[in-house]
Structure formats: C-alpha cells, structure tokens
Amino acid sequence: MSSNASISEIEQEELLDKLQVFKIKGKDKNGRKIIRIIGKFFPARLVSVDVLKKYLEERVFQKLGERKFSVLYVHTGVNRSENFPGISGLRSIYDAIPVNVKDNLEAVYFIHPGLQSRLFLATFGRFLFSAAGLYGKVRYVSRVDYLWEHVRRKEVEIPEFVIDHDDDLEYRPMMDYGLESDHPRVYGAPPTVDSPVSTYSMSNGPMLPIFSMPRRRSSLCLKLTLVTIHVVYLVILFLFDGDLIEKTKKEPWYTALYLLLFAVTLIQYFATSISSPGYALDAMRAVNERNTIYKKTLETSNQSASSRNGSIIVTVEGNQTGRNVLGSNATAWSKLVADLYSGSIIRPWTCTYCNVEQPPRVKHCHDCDKCVLQFDHHCVWLGNCIGQGNHCLFWWYLCAETALCLWTGVLYISYLKAHITLVWWQDGIMILLLITLAISVIFLLLLLLFHSYLILTNQTTYELVRRRRITYLRGLPERVHPFSKGVYRNVYNFCCLRSSVYNSLEPIPSHEEIEEKSRPYSCLAVVTCRCC
C-alpha cells in the first residue's frame, strides 16, 4: 500500500474520517463497545501504512480505553486492488497495535467472508495473526440476520449495500462458497471494456437473444401459459354452453362487453409486461443531460448578453456546502441524490452492480439486473419489475383481471345451474375450472386490496416486507409511513405525477417531519384533513 504523493497526511486522515471506514458505535450482547470497519470504504491506494497506524492509535484506540471491545468487519464488496493493503502492510499494521488493545479484543464478527477470505485466514492468517490469539476470535457471519445473535440490532448501522448482498445470497447461495460468481456479466449484463471477468458461455444455445438466457425463456413460457389459460376458459365456455351462444344472438351487447373486457385485460397485461418500471440509470442520464443542456443554454445567453453590454459575467452554481461535500466535479445526479438525503444522517450508496448512486426507495433487481425507482417487486408472471413507472399500470391490470375472473365465474356458475345433470364429464371439467377460478379470484382480490393500501399510504411491497432491513425505515414505528403525504395527495401523485423523474424521487423526511407523522390523529387533525 503506497501513499499517493499528491495527498498529504492530514488529507489522508480527513479522507478516512469522511468515508467512515472506522467507527466506534454500538455494543454487542455482552455490553462491549464495537468498532465497525467497512472494508469497501478503505482507500488502500490513497492511504499509507504509516498514516493508517497513526490514525488508529490517535483516533480509534484512545477512545476504547482499557475496556473490552469487539470488531465488526464488513467484507461485502471488497475489491482486492482497491481496498486490500497487502499482506506485508496488514502484518505491519497488526504488529503496531498495542498489546493491551489486542488483549482487550474479545471477538471479530466477519460479515460475508467468502471462500477466499476463509482460506486466507485458515492458512496465512494463522501465522500473521497468531499473537493474542486473534485467529481464534474470528466469528464468521454469512448473513446479516445472524449478526443480531451477537450484536444489539438498533445500535449498529449496516450499510444498504450489505443488505442488498444478503438478497444476492438468497438468489445465488453458491456465492458463499466461491462456486458462483457475483459479477453482473455472468447474469447477462452488458460487458464492459475494463471488466476483469472473462466471458462466460454456456453450451451452444439458440441464436435468438430471448432464448439464450434461462430467465427470459421461463418468463416467455409463463406469459404463453397465462394467455393459454385465458383462451382455454373462454373456448370451453362457448364450446359447452349452447345457451350462451343463443343469448349472444338475442343480446349481443352482453357478450360483446365480456369479450371487450377479455381483450382489454390481455392488452393491459402485455402493456404492463413491456412497460418500464423506471430505472435509476435512465433517470441519472436524463438528469445529467438536462443539466448539460441547461448549462449550454445559460452559457450561450450569458455570452450573447456580455457581447452586447461589453461586460464579463461570472456565474456561481450550487451552494458551497454541497460543493465541499461532493466536490467540484460532482454530477447533477450526485447533487440531486445528496439533496434527497439532506434531511437524514444516512448517506447515499452506490450500487455495486449498476455503479449508480441510489436515491431513496431504489432497489437493485437481480432478475432485471438494474436499479429500479420505487421498487415494489419483480412479477414472475409479467416477467417485469413493478416500480415507479408502471405501478399504476399494474394496479389497473389487477382491476381488469379481477373483473374478468369474477364475470367468468358468474358465467360458469350459470352454466352449472342449467346443465348440472346432463353430461357428467362436461360438468366435471367445468367444476374443476371453477374451483381454480375461485382460488384465482380470492388471490387477485387480496392482491388488489393490498396494492390499494400501498397506494393510499405511499408504500411499496419491498418497503413493507423488508422494513426492518432498510436503513431509512429501520428505526421508525410500524404505523409511521415516512413518504405518505395524505390519502388524497398519495392517490393523485400515484395516478398523475409518475412521468417526471423529479416527481418520482422523494427525499427522506427530516426528524421533525417524522415526529409530526408519529403524532396520533386527533379530532382536529381529521377536521383539518391532516390524514388526507
């Protein structure tokens, strides 16, 4: 680990403070202080070994005193070339740790170790860290949920990307053992020029891209299956029910309305399946492009004005505080995302897959391999994510599908009432289809009511299910919905203000706003429509 000549020792120490690589906060179940170390944040190329040893001695070890403590090391997303100081540097740092500090260290909780880290510690680690029995104090933690068996949950802040990696492991458990790569290219992401991962190929498959990936094949099969089920219900109904055909001749409007609903439902289904849920990468490009156009327009107008007046105009953009935090080269997207977190102590995270800074309510979908704005869920039947851009379409599709199933159920029941004793095998088929239809109706009604509740409270399925694992929701009371603006405005924003990128990005409420939302509703609050 070599020091960058352009960065002084003071700047290196300030960088470590800014990145919060080392942070003393929280306690474990035995009441011991915890040093949280984020391996991904450590700038190994910029910070020298000597500066790091001095930093630890003056700003970390002195705060511990003579009391017992534990270390919480987060290995998630560590890049060997960017974050690893080297074996010799690691040994030098460990030797510089005072003996009393080594003795007071009780446990090292190693989050997301991976196979390579385990092998390294089991071989070289036994010799490098033999003093004070450090190797024997390591406790591997493969999931964040297991950490709470040893550490007090509400006292330690776990970064969002660590929680996301937990989700990765749920989808791809072999990543734990190094038998499955965690690089996006393996899962169909577009290759990049500087990617260190070699091209993976399966056996010679079909030439069409839609058939080249198992997930796309399964999605297409599910779509065909769903359409086939709709057609089967329709064909059997008209094939078996002669009275319906006679009724169609006498009252064609009735059947025409039913067929219209059938067509609208399928159209809505395909429209939702091909719609964009709103991707963070597209939003970032739109914001940056719009800012570039605005700057060019402003420069052109300033130049024309200065040429007419014979004067020089100097413009200053942005406030100085934002410039100090983000740097002078920060993009418009970075500044926008930082503003969305301004009311909270939580800092924005960069997705390790998309390499894009995530605004609040953004989640990386591992099926689409993209960060989705206001991620709700990935619908297997649609083969698409449900998010900010298509949640409204999805809700209308649920309405149409529920109405179609109810109407079809009424037609099937009418047939059975009139022909229950005529042909037994036809009755058996109709009863079987009706039972399946009844189950579908119950599921659709519950799903429709559930998403209606989410709309009224401005929540998403992901936020509701994973509330305790999302950083900005973890400490809030269950009945507090931080992004809710009242029922009326929630519905209005959901239906009418989804097309604009700026309207879809919601800031994290400040502490004062959370306290206001936490207050129970009184008669005065209802009269003044605080809930609306």
- Please compute the radius of gyration using only Cα atoms: 29 Å
- Tell me the total number of β-strands: 11
Strand order of the largest sheet: 1-2-3-4-5
Counted by DSSP, the helix tally is: 22
Structural class: alpha/beta
Instruction: Give the distance, in angstroms, between the N- and C-terminal Cα atoms.
Output: 57 Å
Which residues form runs of ≥5 with pLDDT under 50? 174-214, 311-328
Report the sheet-strand fraction.
5-15%
- Calculate the mean pLDDT score and round it: 80
Please, how many domains? 2
What would your notes on this structure say?
The radius of gyration is 29 Å and the shape is elongated. The protein has helices spanning 9-19, 49-64, 80-83, 87-96, 99-104, 114-128, 144-147, 160-171, 209-212, 214-240, 242-250, 252-274, 280-309, 320-326, 332-340, 391-419, 424-457, 461-465, 487-496, 501-504, 511-518, 523-527, and strands spanning 22-27, 33-38, 69-74, 105-111, 138-141, 349-350, 357-358, 363-365, 370-372, 377-379, 384-386. The chain has a five-stranded mixed sheet. It has a two-stranded antiparallel sheet with strand order 6-7. It has two domains: 9-177, CRAL-TRIO lipid binding domain (Phosphatidylinositol Transfer Protein Sec14p); 209-532, no CATH class. Strand 2, helix 2 (49-64) and strand 3 form a beta-alpha-beta unit. The longest helix has 34 residues, at 424-457. It starts with 8 loop residues before the first helix and ends in a 5-residue tail after the last helix. Helix 2 (49-64) runs parallel beside helix 4 (87-96), helix 11 (242-250) packs across helix 12 and helix 16 runs antiparallel to helix 17 (424-457). It is α/β, with parallel strands linked by helices and 532 residues long. It has 22 helices and eleven strands. One of its GO terms (molecular function) is protein-cysteine S-palmitoyltransferase activity. Residues 15-167 form the CRAL-TRIO domain. It catalyses: L-cysteinyl-[protein] + hexadecanoyl-CoA = S-hexadecanoyl-L-cysteinyl-[protein] + CoA. One of its GO terms (cellular component) is endomembrane system. It is a multi-pass membrane protein.
